Amino acid sequence: MKTDYALYLVTSSSPTLLGPDTDLIEDVVRPALEGGVTIVQLREKDGDMTTAQFVERARRLLEVTREFGVPLLINDRVDVARAVGCEGCHVGQDDMDVQSARRILGPDAIIGVSASTAEEAVKACREGASYLGIGTVFATSTKKDTKHIIGIQGVRDILAALDEAGYAHIPTVCIGGITQSNVQQVLQQSATPNKSLDGIAVVSAIVGSKDPKAAAAEFDRLVRASLPVP
Ligand code: TZP
Ligand code: MG
């Protein structure tokens, strides 16, 4: 089945985003899925979670994403993705390479790669990435080590380079500082004649929202109105 990248939720366990008695899965991800999130990435950077806890959380989350028929990807930890049998993983430039990840997860796994330059994007496609996460678009306090703030023009340049290299068919989402106020501008202004974004990825605009379901539903409305008709 074709993966829908339109509204991609990346989780965070940061206490500054999650309220004190908030359960990430039941109080954030489930309502966000009800609101229209189409794909979920479990990203654990903030706590000092053990591997055992990580696997347990991924298993619990997979039960929920399966209820909604939405893919679950694991950030960085290809081993955890394999252990729980979810749909795939997302790797950054310093993580395991795509080919090795695919050896572990198999030919049908969804393997996403972060890219902040045209070179990184084209290389990831050549190596068999299923989709690209392009960014960081705008400065964000969610990710501390964002060296490369590329702006909308940077996203556009990468999309143009993908088209030029024959990878216009590889799905792309962008990430970093995306809000309900800028999402339509990002989708519209990054589009090139042959290659547009397939969706947007957000952390704080949904995880940090008081009402994740309403936040996701509003993104869903805004994104659907700006994506080219398939
Ligand atoms: N990669 C680049 S920016 C970022 C990641 C994981 C964090 C984006 O968070 P937010 O809150 O949507 O700006
Ligand atoms: Mg990583």
UniProtKB/TrEMBL annotation:
<comment type="similarity">
    <text>In the C-terminal section; belongs to the Thz kinase family.</text>
</comment>
<comment type="function">
    <text>Condenses 4-methyl-5-(beta-hydroxyethyl)thiazole monophosphate (THZ-P) and 2-methyl-4-amino-5-hydroxymethyl pyrimidine pyrophosphate (HMP-PP) to form thiamine monophosphate (TMP).</text>
</comment>
<comment type="similarity">
    <text>In the N-terminal section; belongs to the thiamine-phosphate synthase family.</text>
</comment>
<feature type="domain" description="Thiamine phosphate synthase/TenI">
    <location>
        <begin position="7"/>
        <end position="206"/>
    </location>
</feature>
<protein>
    <submittedName>
        <fullName>Thiamine biosynthetic bifunctional enzyme</fullName>
    </submittedName>
</protein>
